[in-house]
Design a protein that fits this description.
The complex is a heterodimer. Chain A is α/β, with parallel strands linked by helices. Chain A has eight helices and 13 strands. The radius of gyration of chain A is 18 Å and the shape is globular. Chain A starts with 8 loop residues before the first helix and ends in a 16-residue tail after the last helix. In chain B, strands 1, 2, 3, 4, 8, 9, 10 and 11 form an eight-stranded mixed β-sheet that branches. Chain B has a three-stranded antiparallel β-sheet with strand order 5-7-6, covered by helices on one side. In chain B, β1 (24-27), α2 (37-45) and β2 form a beta-alpha-beta unit. Classes of the chains: A alpha/beta, B alpha/beta.
Chain lengths: 266, 325
């Protein structure tokens, strides 16, 4: 297991995703850890990346962690405060959308990186109801690449989604084209154990690498389908610099990195 | 739509007049920002029922309307209040118990649907959702749709691009227009005639406003007649779209109102906890909503200290350093 005294798995996840963001990327952020990854990338390796939210805020200069993509904090130092229509059009637009990397999360993922964030069980009589697509289906349909955060659990990596909310590679190499979608698809899955990629030919998920102290078998034990582990290479843990930036510049209040909760008032 | 020059009325009268039982409604704002919460609470106090709610990501406002039993049918993209409730709790319970009927769309779908309503076209196309269950699975059955003249016959419709491969597109999803009976938004400024100014992100408020048959605008500041015309570039909604102007300080509380106040983390955290069981949720409703005669009394009950803590910093538009745990 990870040495908890050095860093947490949440910190590892945020940094692993931040490393995937390239300078000049337009980064579509959701709520929570994806915002931290985007903030960290801007401070570490991608100073010219652009943080952008579905609510319409473009190139936010985040100084405090937003608690939602509608938080007034996303407007801080923004270049443009657009509307929802502007934000999604930016992704659907072939010229600008090709530069967008979307960061997503979900309740379930399958081997082609398709996501469920709607229900567990039958759609008409769900056992568990989640928030629904939000902008996820839009992002998955439009942008050039996506990075997906998941918890490494058997019930979350499933052979068949209970509900297909957001398109990944659909059912393989021609899936997106057959469905009528262009653009790219999922590039990487970031879990609390490992990183997965998608094969260039088959578009199936494979193990890219495990975090320090994690073995590929542990990852497979926590998935509901098998994946190729032959290409796995060790993922380096966070550097001192990465950790300091993440903790002190991105989330000093520990709003996302820790789960501290205020006791009930009154 | 109303062309008169003075539309200022009280909130109770506005809700009583325009939000009838069974009305198709939409509310402005996004997750925990600029929801028209005073109006939501007044709808709850007046015990409106059978509402058909159209929402993109109207987290807190939608959850409270659902929790209080006002909503029968919901068309929505995202029911979450950010980190305070990644899935809105009363929404989750109502869907799992089968108490409301739900139709799922994406945020862009809902935005386009309001835009189509505002433009006066029956639908708009997008590439979003192709290949997904948002297209394939319908919450409202075809029979239900055919039997209700206020619903389009289809949830959405996929067609081949009629311009062949133009714009590198093979297929598009057509999403149907929404024209709510009433939209309610909360804004920073409006004048008595109804000219409306939103500071910061407008979310989808402007198209929601223009798509509606009736529009209630609640505002932090009632601008003097004509004063907003001095800087018309900053106004988004023409006065003739507006039916009622309600002067309502803290009208978005406990959600945020950019440049005026932040969301209240104490309220939202407590709401999340109280929403968990039927009895604690009932107690919340009795204490905070039914137990207060109007929004001013609710704000008074919250107390000066908490209201002071969320006052927006003039430079950033939010409460810098606010304890949000």
């Amino acid at each position: 297991m990870t040495d908890e005294n050095q860093y947490t798995l949440k910190e590892m996840m945020a940094i692993a995703a931040a490393r995937e963001i390239r300078d000049g990327d337009i980064v579509f952020c959701g709520t929570g850890i994806s915002m931290l990854a985007a903030m960290a990338a801007k401070h570490i390796s991608a100073p010219n990346s652009i943080i952008f939210f579905e609510t319409g805020a473009i190139d936010s200069q985040l100084t405090e962690v937003p608690m939602a993509v509608g938080d007034s904090r996303v407007m801080n130092g923004a270049a443009v405060n657009g509307s929802l229509a502007d934000a999604f059009a930016t992704m659907q637009n072939r010229i600008t959308g090709g530069q967008v990397v979307g960061i997503l999360g979900a309740a379930q993922i399958d081997c082609f990186g398709n996501l469920n964030s709607t229900v567990i069980g039958d759609y008409d009589h769900p056992r568990v109801r989640f928030s629904g697509s939000g902008g996820a289906a839009d992002v998955g349909s439009f942008v050039s690449r996506t990075i997906i955060f998941m918890q490494q659990q058997r019930r979350k990596f499933v052979p068949v989604l209970d509900y297909f909310t957001c398109p990944g590679w659909i059912d393989g190499p021609d899936g997106r084209k057959q469905a009528g979608l262009t653009g790219g698809g999922p590039e990487m899955v970031v879990t609390d154990m490992a990183l997965m990629g998608f094969d260039d030919i088959t578009r199936r998920m494979y193990l890219k690498g495990c975090y320090p102290g994690i073995e590929p078998e542990q990852v497979l034990d926590n998935m509901g389908f098998g994946i190729d582990i032959s290409r796995a290479e060790p993922v380096p843990g966070p550097s001192e610099t990465e950790l300091v930036i993440l903790r002190e510049r991105c989330d000093p209040q520990g709003l996302i990195l820790t789960n501290r909760r205020r006791p009930p008032a009154g | 739509m109303n062309t008169s020059s003075d539309k200022v009325i009280g909130l109770a009268e506005a809700i009583d007049t325009f939000v009838v039982d069974g009305a198709h409604i939409s509310i402005g704002g996004f997750t925990i920002n600029r929801n028209p919460m005073a109006a939501v609470y007044e709808i709850i106090r007046q015990k409106k029922t059978g509402l058909h709610l159209y929402a993109h990501s109207n987290g807190q406002g939608a959850d409270e309307l659902i929790g209080a039993g006002c909503v029968a049918r919901l068309e929505i993209a995202y029911a979450g209040s950010g980190r305070f409730a990644p899935t809105c709790i009363r929404f989750k319970k109502a869907v799992e118990a089968g108490r409301i009927q739900v139709e799922d769309y994406s945020n862009y779908h809902m935005t386009l649907r309001f835009t189509a309503g505002a433009m006066g076209v029956p639908f708009l196309p997008t590439r979003s959702g192709l290949g997904t269950d948002i297209v394939n699975k319908w919450g409202f059955s075809e029979e239900m749709r055919r039997g209700d003249s206020r619903l389009p016959d289809r949830k959405l419709h996929v067609i081949d691009n009629p311009f062949n491969g133009w714009a590198d597109t093979a297929k598009v999803v057509l999403v149907p227009a929404i024209n709510p009976d009433v939209t309610i938004i909360h804004v920073q400024k409006a004048d008595p005639q109804g000219t409306t100014r939103i500071d910061g992100l407008p979310f989808a408020d402007v198209v929601q406003a223009k798509a509606a048959r009736h529009l209630i605008v609640t505002c932090e500041e009632l601008a003097s007649p004509g004063s907003l015309r001095e800087d018309a570039d900053r106004n988004q909604i023409p006065f003739f779209c507006v039916d009622a102007v309600v002067h309502l300080p803290f009208g978005a509380y406990p959600t945020a109102c950019y440049r005026v106040y932040d969301y209240d983390p104490v309220f939202l955290n407590r709401y999340r906890e109280q929403a968990e069981t039927e009895s604690s949720y009932r107690a919340y409703l009795e204490e905070m909503i039914y137990g207060t005669c109007d929004h001013a009394e609710l704000i008074e009950q919250i107390g000066k200290d908490r209201i002071r803590a969320i006052a927006a910093d003039p430079d950033t538009g939010y409460a810098v350093g606010l304890d949000r745990r």
